[in-house]
Model the fold of this input.
Amino acid sequence: MIVEPVFEHFGRSHLVALGVIAGISFGFPLWARSWPEERIRQVARWLAIGLVAYRTGYIPVVAWIYGDPVRDLLPLHICAILYYLAAFVLWTRDQLGYEIAYFWGMGGTLQALLTPEMNRPFPDPTFWSHFAGHGALLMAIFYATIALKLRPVPGSILRALVATLVYAALLLPLNLLLDTNYMYLIAKPASASLLDFLGPWPWYIVAAIGLAAVSYVVWYLPFLISDLTTGRAREALEDRAETHG
Done:
């Protein structure tokens, strides 16, 4: 059994958690593709209910066990609100919701898994909660992409970036009002993160916006490459058919 006195980034428990999440996040949606369409939709809705139930129940449980103030547990971080957005997408297959969820998930949830703001090591319940919860988010996004066959299009990048900017603009005054630090708009996280390399406040926020835009482009590349490859293959088949015709 892996027991650590403190959480260690990319330590044994962290790497094991990442490996399990990667296997389930890809494996389950790939398996689901072989199911009948009705079953795919039903499982999507059960996943949606699970996401909402987990994140809604998280607040009173953590507040009760650890005494964390409720104002710091509200579902206002990107990953927290993503539970509800991903649930909405799984239930409705809404394209705009999917676009935002996809880029927020691939850019934000992955970051939360790779560099978690974690001060309680395995096997503390918050370790399980963090990795199981964020892993479920990642699986939900892959399920929507692989099983429900949703995908971003070129305009998705701009729409997701606008949604990110609007959400940050709304969240900043709320942070000041509640004395909170949602989306890390007031200060960097206490643990090591990518923001440490982006300069002091407020410049790291500007840099993070640019980094988000680059990240969205990177996460769109698999679809762009697939489109280009498929288009070229289709053109080659059409040319060949015309030649032999």
Remarks:
- Residues 38 and 139 are 19 Å apart (CA to CA).
- The mean pLDDT is 87.
- The first helix runs from residue 12 to 32.
